[in-house]
Amino acid sequence: MKIMVGGTFDPLHDGHRLLIKRAFDLASPDGKVIIGLTNDTFANRKVHPIHPYNERYKDLVRCITSLNTDVPWEIEELHDQYGSSLDTDFDALVVSEETFPVGKNINHLRRERGKPCVEIHMIRCVLAEDGRWISSTRIWRGEIDIHGKIIQKEEKSE
Amino acid sequence: MKIMVGGTFDPLHDGHRLLIKRAFDLASPDGKVIIGLTNDTFANRKVHPIHPYNERYKDLVRCITSLNTDVPWEIEELHDQYGSSLDTDFDALVVSEETFPVGKNINHLRRERGKPCVEIHMIRCVLAEDGRWISSTRIWRGEIDIHGKIIQKEEKSE
């Protein structure tokens, strides 16, 4: 199957890792994975500062190569939420609970263009040590690390 | 991965076949598939008459064996929408666009019980020849067959 997935991946945390791993699991060796990576202009709509595209690109490549996968893949620069997903022929989209609505929009817009809709695989929420979601914003605020480990404020102030 | 999927499967049409096939695709050979089949009391809430459990069970087994799969599986009798999905440890649920809300409820109720949420794989809509969805109701009305082929009214009245 040909699978698409997308994001800003900044910083690339364990939730992103599951998202990317699942895309490759679903693809099967004769399939392909397209990973959309938001460009700096689009990514900078976020509430916190974003690392430059090139740095995020390198982290993403490091994450993919660590999977030791035989599945072909490519990274696509995203100028908006959709990239080539509205016009490309592919089979399934991998999303988080947070980005599921984007997946639904993609199918809605594909239907309007006369394209077949795609399957949507929503991964489970990846929780931090405190039972709340891992998110880039929480990492940026210094509450947790990329694996969801609580950062002790006491240690930081010493 | 351990996968769950459920339905009334009456009559078992091409949309159901994709649902069941995808559950086995996701499971991987070391995984397992649990297929929930609604019992007659629960199934009879539908707007149209339902074939007895035993007949639906046999059709379901025929569909599964036609996949020639090595993945272990079992059929669970469903007395309600959820069956054992609220308490069992499993990895992902396969749903259609129509049953996606049930999947969301399952995760919501699992969280309330302190169980980890599961991944939800929503298959694409399977369309009939006329571009509209294949559904049991449309088949029951005699509009289409189980493969989505339009049934010509003229032929029927001859």
From TrEMBL, chains A, B:
Record bears the keyword Nucleotidyltransferase: yes
Family label: Belongs to the eukaryotic CoaD family.
Reaction equation(s) it catalyzes: (R)-4'-phosphopantetheine + ATP + H(+) = 3'-dephospho-CoA + diphosphate
EC class name: transferase
E.C. numbers: 2.7.7.3
Localization per record: Cytoplasm
Highest taxon in the source lineage: Archaea
Protein name: Phosphopantetheine adenylyltransferase
Domain Cytidyltransferase-like per the UniProt entry, residue ranges: 4-139
HAMAP family, A to Z: PPAT_arch
Function summary: Reversibly transfers an adenylyl group from ATP to 4'-phosphopantetheine, yielding dephospho-CoA (dPCoA) and pyrophosphate.
GO molecular function, one term: pantetheine-phosphate adenylyltransferase activity
GO cellular component: cytoplasm
Principal location listed in the UniProt entry: cytoplasm
Pathway stated in the Swiss-Prot or TrEMBL entry: Cofactor biosynthesis; coenzyme A biosynthesis
Pfam families in the cross-refs: CTP_transf_like
GO biological process assignments: coenzyme A biosynthetic process
